[in-house]
């Protein structure tokens, strides 16, 4: 248990759960930053927000005596905080997609942080659990509409988001294949796992043959991690939080990633009716799926495997399965998805 040194007279209780599946031995702790972030508020409790596989950030829920609760994210580097703050403010000012309200941020401090208000609504994760088929199709359509609205923000070039505000984003511009390759290398660097480490090199080599086709993809704002825990349902619409992976690139990547993260089991395919509703929701806003969706989707099917490859032990625990069985599935998928790239 970690404790924040309270101000005189402050009765501060801290609840913190340890992630036993951490890919690194040393995990971040956000609690020491709470009082620096909220010197003008009486803090009553600092609570855990659930398990995270990201060793470079930590988020806590902060309850106050006289203010609504807030969420405080700390990062090892200020670039993540600048990116997330910029993306949130830009989306809030240029779309009708619900996002958190930024309370305060310090990307330049010794421990960079971002504080946001709690979003109004229910977690999509909670809404999805126990929902019937019709309700799930409606929720999937809502996710599709939300991503389409995010993807309406178009840019002249792909690139990494390095700053900005509600009026615009600052990019480190680059060709989309280079931005994609950098994200793959970043995933590789997040873990010390070596079991399937050669997959990253094989994937990057295979993507060289797709460079021209990927370079021609549209450049739009991407959320980067549209998983169910990062979606909030309110008044029939789906909002998004956790924008630290926002970047500009091919909408097919975001669209396929959300399909995989939101609607498909780890070792299985998404329900076709759910996928159809999801695509219909997207097309209702965008007019259609992104041009070239079916042609470029094999790239992102292969890229999605970088998660199970990098966090193999986490996936085995999350999937509650036998390690040997999971390894067999992953090895088969690796060969099939790489073959789909080299045969195209």
Q: How are the elements arranged and paired?
A:
Elements: E1 13-14, H1 34-37, E2 43-48, E3 57-64, E4 70-75, H2 78-94, E5 102-106, E6 113-117, E7 122-123, H3 124-128, H4 133-151, E8 159-165, E9 168-173, H5 176-189, H6 198-208, H7 211-215, E10 220-222, E11 231-234, E12 237-240, E13 247-249, H8 251-263, H9 272-286, H10 293-304, H11 306-310, H12 312-319, H13 323-342
Parallel strand pairs: 1-2
Antiparallel strand pairs: 2-3, 3-4, 4-6, 5-6, 7-11, 8-9, 8-13, 10-13, 11-12
Helix pairs in contact: 4-8, 4-9, 5-6, 6-13, 8-10, 10-13
Keywords: Transferase
InterPro entries: AGP_Transferase, Aminoglycoside_PTrfase, Kinase-like_dom_sf
Organism: Halosegnis rubeus
Overview of this protein structure:
It is a single chain. The protein is α+β, with helices and mostly antiparallel strands and 344 residues long. It has two domains: 13-117, Phosphorylase Kinase, domain 1, CATH 3.30.200.20; 122-342, Alpha-Beta Complex (Aminoglycoside 3'-phosphotransferase, Chain: A, domain 2). 43% of the residues lie in helices and 18% in strands. The protein has 13 helices and 13 strands. Strands 1-2-3-4-6-5 form a six-stranded mixed beta sheet. Helix 4 (133-151) runs antiparallel to helix 8, helix 4 packs parallel to helix 9 and helix 5 packs antiparallel against helix 6. The protein starts with 12 loop residues before the first strand and ends with a helix. Pfam families: APH. It comes from Halosegnis rubeus. Residues 68-286 form the Aminoglycoside phosphotransferase domain. InterPro entries: AGP_Transferase, Aminoglycoside_PTrfase, Kinase-like_dom_sf. Keywords: Transferase.
